[in-house]
Specification:
Helices cover about 30% and strands about 20% of the residues. By secondary structure, it is an alpha/beta fold.
């Protein structure tokens, strides 16, 4: 199929304003297919609305760790206090049918010529972070496609496996080389942590073999106001502006 463009996004974390802005940017950029890498819920004010929007897309969706805990009876003891507050709000906001949707999501998938996972391909249910070349090497062991997209860390990064595994500088556009494998973190829509508050996602063009990293401004003040209005902790609102 020609003229296909994949818009690949992750870590919405109940930030409806950021999600709406990213989807608009995708349309403006001519994206034809969307893929969600999980963590639709948690942290911010609109978990139910974000689940509804993602379901309306009818696209492949992967389970994230916040999706997993919100949809089950697990407690949030191993999450930090701020994350726990967001999880509690999401649990209360979602209906049983929406939780069932999250529970049923797969841990990973192959789509066309690439693989997707929320965290890492080595034991995806352990929610391992991939921040270093060594951690990426563990994931590459289980990567059977040239390209894999992930999220979870909220920081866009690119790891390449040639003779060895290493992180390479993230440029606005990345052209894939033959005989190499890539692990690409798409960053976060709803809570970036790279000191840039704007929502992050990528566009992948299989024909040109190019990945484009996108940043999208959104209605930050409304997102922050909603957090405060429903009684979530103020630091959750403040960190959105700081990109941490």
């Amino acid at each position: 199929m020609k003229n296909v463009k994949y818009g690949i996004f992750s870590d919405i974390h109940s930030n409806l304003e950021a999600l709406v802005a990213v989807l608009k940017d995708m349309r403006d950029q001519g994206v034809t297919h969307t893929v969600c890498l999980g963590d639709i819920v948690g942290y911010n004010a609109n978990p139910r609305e974000c689940v509804q929007v993602v379901r309306t897309l009818g696209c492949p969706v992967i389970k994230g760790n916040h999706d997993d805990i919100v949809a089950t009876n697990q407690d949030a003891r191993h999450f930090n206090a701020l994350a726990g507050e967001g999880i509690t709000h999401s649990k209360k906001a979602l209906r049983d049918e929406e939780k069932s949707f999250l529970r049923a999501l797969p841990m990973q998938a192959r789509i066309a010529d690439f693989t997707v996972v929320h965290a890492s391909l080595d034991d995806p249910e352990d929610w391992n972070y991939v921040n270093t070349g060594l951690e990426a090497e563990s994931s590459f062991t289980y990567q059977h496609t040239q390209l894999c997209f992930c999220g979870h860390t909220h920081i866009a990064k690119v790891f390449i496996r040639e003779r060895e595994v290493r992180e390479i500088p993230k440029t606005a556009k990345l052209e894939l080389k033959k005989n190499c494998r890539y692990l690409v973190n798409v960053g976060a829509v709803g809570q970036p942590r790279d000191r840039d508050w704007r929502a992050s996602y990528v566009i992948y063009n299989p024909d040109s073999r190019v990945i484009e990293f996108r940043r999208v401004a959104y209605d930050l003040e409304t997102s922050q106001s909603k957090i405060m209005t429903i009684g979530l902790p103020e630091p959750l609102a403040a960190r959105l502006a700081m990109g941490v």
